[in-house]
Amino acid sequence: MTFVERLRRDPWLLVAAFLGVALFLLVLVPQLWIVRSSLLAQDGQSVTLGNFLRYLTAVRYRTALLNSVLLAVVTTVLSMAVAVPLAFVHARYRLPGRDLVLTLATLATASPPFLGAYAWVMLLGFNGILSPGLRAIGLPWHSIVGFHGIVWVGVWGAVGLVFLFAHDAFTSLDPDLEEAAESAGASRLRAHFDVALPLATPGLLTAAYLVLTGVLADFGTPRIIGGPVSVLPVLLYHEFLSEGGVNPGMASAGSLLSIGLATAVLLLQRLVLAGRSYVMSGTRRVAPRALPRWAVVVATVATALFFSMVFVPHLVIAFSSFLSWRADIPGGPFTLDNYRALALRSSAPVLVSYALSAISTLIAVVVGTLLAYVAVRRSYRVLSPALQALTMIPYLIPGTVLAIGLIVVFNREPIRLTGTWVILALAYFIRKVPYATKSAEASLYQVHESLEEAALSVGATPAQALRDVTSRLMLPGLVSGATLTFLMTLTELSSTLMLYGAATTTMSIVIYQAAMGMGGQFGLAASTAVAMMVSVYLPLYLVRKRFPSVGVAA
Amino acid sequence: MSRGPVEVRVEGIRKSFGREPALEDVSLDFTAGGFNTLLGPSGCGKTTLLRSIAGFVTPEAGRVFIGGEDVTHRPPWTRRIGFVFQSYALWPHMSVFDNVAYGLRLRRVEGTELQRRVRAMLETVGLTALHERGPGALSGGQQQRVALARALVLEPDVLLLDEPLANLDARLRVEMRQEIRRLQKELQITTIFVTHDQEEALELSDRVAVMSRGRLEQVGSPEDVYARPASPDVAALLGGARFLEGVVSEEGDLIVDGARLPLGLSRDLAGRRVRVAVSPRRLVVVAD
After folding, report:
1. Across-strand partners of A412?
2. Which end of chain A is more exposed for a tag (fewer CB within 10 A), N or C?
């Protein structure tokens, strides 16, 4: 059979080849440039490993690296310690407000981390709203800025996600297993520890993995609340962009180190999970048991505390958006000036955010659907594994690093994209295409292949079959996947900060600048933040109502 | 549209999935306008053969001819086939009417002509009242009729049926069996029917091709394959036969472990060791 005949029979081959080339250029080529630049010495000529070695020898670099790792581990351990027991109690015992709790946890997963950092600085920074009060009652309170602040914000930012994963892991256990342990003479507590916890490990490990890599890649939180504490993403930002002493070699080496860290964590997670995937035989899900009254009260109070800590930043920001601000000092009385300013003079960032997110989401969903189709319905000897790898690489690239790669490649003729909206849309698209693909794959698995073959058998071309049958049936999944992608891009900060220009200032940039004490538009930043929260939580809430399984990130 | 009954032929078809061979050098003619059945146990390659004829599967070697035309490298959507799936594969987001009309719409049939042809076909399969419904609201038998209507409304050259009765309960299965046969007779369309159920095969077919382990075992009329199975596999498939092994005596009796069974076997076999298939209805010598 000739190649042309093969293409005529299976036009998807052409689609797969095109996607392969496009992803290679957009995802891999920038990273290869980073590799090249990381191996060049300061003179830009000789090849060296010196840049990598300096991360181990020079204090400035070593500290950032160690801080990042330490921060990730501490934040992960603490967020698990807080959220897992609570999730267990909610999964196993009958407690009031189950739906509300799950909805709140889902909403918490969409909270942009820098928003939390901003709000906690406002509350507990050196000049924070609550700080004088703490000092007045005799506490030796200085400020939340510092390592402890990054951990604090990181933990409350991560617990929603951990809660959801843990809750799911504990409810999908077959109750017979624990009952069997109890019938063998184990106490209920003993059964929890010996049976329930080990069987839930895969779910818990996945949550831990997501938190760990999330913290490793997070730029906003350490930048806003870290003060002098240096971590890898912030260091990279400075190395690459700061006015004096730009050092692309070190930035590139650091970029590769952070990708290496993410890859190592992923491999570790795979390795640990490999021996632990249990197949549950029963289809029965756990029926929650009753708790004594005092325990219900304790659990409910703990839950209320938990979620108030999670949502404190949102309340603080919403509150502050109704204050009039003079420089960075909030004052009375209540006013709608900030919203008036937002609507009349400063709506551009909102519109820019929406436009960028809409465009990149649209492309990510279309490309993700095509990628999912090839992944699920075709198996090409070379193209399929190549596409799968190319799709998943962006998972491992922190936003800062992705931005560096794009700048390196697209800041020269003939393609000069830096400073335009195109490079931002491109960055958002690349960052989110793995999520869009995964969610499209999940919905494609629900569409039986014979439905499509039936279309071919009555004369539909593959394109017509995709348009009229397969994509229609995937639609609910695509809509919820698109919504999540849209929300994630709406709150994107790390790559935005490196790629935006005056005309492409987004909501996240406005909030970031206020949080960094730049620009003095605090009232406006607060109302912009409220606009962002509404833009995120309202669609998420609606989608979750329609498709209850949605919400756990990818 | 219809150009009268069309012959279908496959020549030397080979196909494997991974290292498992699914079809090994299968050649077969399907009579024009006839009801041809591919019979065999699951995994024998009968569905793969059917899907090769439809174009869903590309054989590694061999050719497929529909109406004398080599369609081996033609994609399914250009082959003028009608395919009915085991799971019916009705599109759940379309009404019964739209399911049947979809292929016509792709061919730019519109307006009253579209209405007329879809309604006529729904009437043919006995489903006039239900065209507004979604497939989810139909019973298994009704879904089957819609699937048939969807395939037949395009007046295809060949109707391919992949175990279409397997998902129905026993009573409906018998009813639909007769329905399919009636439609086929009425439309005089070359039909290839895949099943593992020998009763279906024997009752419906003009010709039966028995397959086993990727190979063609025997082709013939239902009477032929039932009365004179060419191999133990064929005999075992037709009627759940049991085997008696023994030596044929001068008188044509079968001697099994010293016991003499007066079977009236051919005296030509005298003195030879044979296996005799014992089916619920009759005894047949299958091999020696």
Report:
1. A415
2. N
Question: H or E segment at A355?
Answer: helix A348-377
Residues of B with Cβ-Cβ distance to A5 under 8 angstroms: 73
CA distance B45 to chain A (A): 18
Quick one: pLDDT band at residue B51, thresholds 50, 70, 90? Answer: very high
CA distance B190 to A395: 53
Q: How far is CA A111 from CA A106, A156, B120, B281, in A?
A: 9, 10, 58, 74
Secondary structure (3-state) at A239: helix
SS (H, E, C) A130-192: CHHHHHHCCCCCCCCCCHHHHHHHHHHHHHHHHHHHHHHHHHCCCHHHHHHHHHCCCCHHHHH
The shortest CB-CB distance from B93 to any of A10, A458, A472 is to A472
Q: Are β-strands B69-70 and B207-212 bridged in parallel, bridged antiparallel, or unpaired?
A: unpaired
CB–CB of A453 and B154 under 8 A? no
Beta partners for residue B220, in sequence order? B208
The answer to whether B106 contacts A5, with C-beta atoms less than 8 Å apart, is no
Tell if the pTM clears 0.90, that is, is over it.
no
Residue B275: pLDDT band (50, 70, 90) is confident
Give the bridge partners for A199, in sequence order: none
B91 and A8 in contact by Cβ < 8 A? no
**Which residue among A5, A450, A462 places its CB closest to the CB of B85?**
A450
- pLDDT range class, residue A387, cuts 50, 70, 90: very high
Interface touch A1/B73, C-beta < 8 Å: yes
Backbone dihedral angles phi then psi of residue A351, each to the nearest 5 degrees:
-65, -40
Neighbours of A288 (CB within 10 A): 15
Q: Which residue has the higher pLDDT, B121 or A140?
A: B121
- How large is the ipTM? 0.83
B53/chain A closest Cα distance in angstroms: 11
pLDDT value at residue A553? 39
Contact A453 B151 (CB under 8 A): no
Q: Report whether pLDDT(A281) > 80.
A: no
The per-residue pLDDT for B1 is 46
* Structure-model confidence comparison of residues A364 and A521, the more confident one: A364
Pick among B85, B105, B159 to test the A interface (most A CBs inside 10 A): B85
Q: How far apart are CA A533 and CA A316, in angstroms?
A: 12
Chain A with chain B: Cβ pairs closer than 8 A: 74
Q: Quick one: closest CA in B to A465, which residue?
A: B77
Chain A hits for B158, CB-CB cut-off 8 Å, are none
Whether residues A459 and B77 touch (CB distance < 8 A) is answered with: yes
Residue A457 and residue B54 in contact, taking contact as beta carbons nearer than 8 Å: yes
How far apart (Å, rounded) are the C-alpha atoms in residues A306 and A39? 47
Note whether A289 contacts B: Cβ–Cβ < 8 A: no
First-last CA distance in chain A: 40
What residues form DSSP beta bridges with B65?
B9, B70
pLDDT tens sequence across B219-244 = 998 888 887 888 877 877 776 556 67
Choose among B162, B169, B196, B198: nearest CA to B180.
B162
Q: How many whole angstroms separate alpha carbon A175 and alpha carbon B93? A: 38
Q: What is the pLDDT of residues A164-177, one digit of tens each?
A: 999 988 887 766 77
First vs last C-alpha separation in chain B:
52
Q: Which residues of A374-413 are buried (b: 16+ CB within 10 A; e: fewer)?
A: bbbeeebeebeebbeebbebbbbbbbbbbbbbbbbbbeee
